[in-house]
Amino acid sequence: MVVAAHLVPLQPTVGPATLTLTLSGATADLLGQAQVGVVGHMTHPGMTPAVATVIRREPDIYDAALDLSMPGDWVIVATVRMPDGRRLESKTAVRVQPRP
Q1: How far apart are alpha carbons 61 and 26 in whole angstroms?
Q2: Which of 67, 74, 69, 82 is nearest to 36 (CA)?
């Protein structure tokens, strides 16, 4: 099982961003039943995480809408739980820029 993550915009500023997850390595039926969660964490302690709203676009493609509230270094963690018990995790490091 493989999880590929793609962030749009690639170099985000404070505000909305979308992490698209593409799953592969299982049947479409299993991929469509995956439970996907995405949370953005700032790398310094004490900051509230950004919890994404995740929408399944296709059986193997999930979009996670995030609101990145502050500039700085973030780690976006996607957790995929398959109906057969497998659990996968993808981490994406990103530097959020201030709004222009």
Answers
A1: 13
A2: 82
Segments forming the whole domain that contains residue 52: 2-96
Dihedral, CA atoms, 74, 36, 88, 81, nearest 10 degrees?
Answer: 150
> Could you tell me the CATH number of the domain that includes residue 37?
2.60.40.1930
Rounded to two decimals, what is the model's pTM?
0.90
H/E segment holding residue 32? helix 28-32
> What would the mean pLDDT of 57-79 be, rounded to a whole number?
95
Q: How many domains does the chain have?
A: 1
**How confident is the model over 3-36, as pLDDT tens digits?**
899 999 999 999 999 999 998 887 767 778 889 9
Plot region of 25 (φ>0 → left; ψ -120 to 50 → alpha; else → beta): left
How do 53-58 and 61-68 pair as beta strands?
A: antiparallel
Distances (CA, A) of 27 to 24, 31, 43, 74, 90: 8, 6, 35, 32, 20
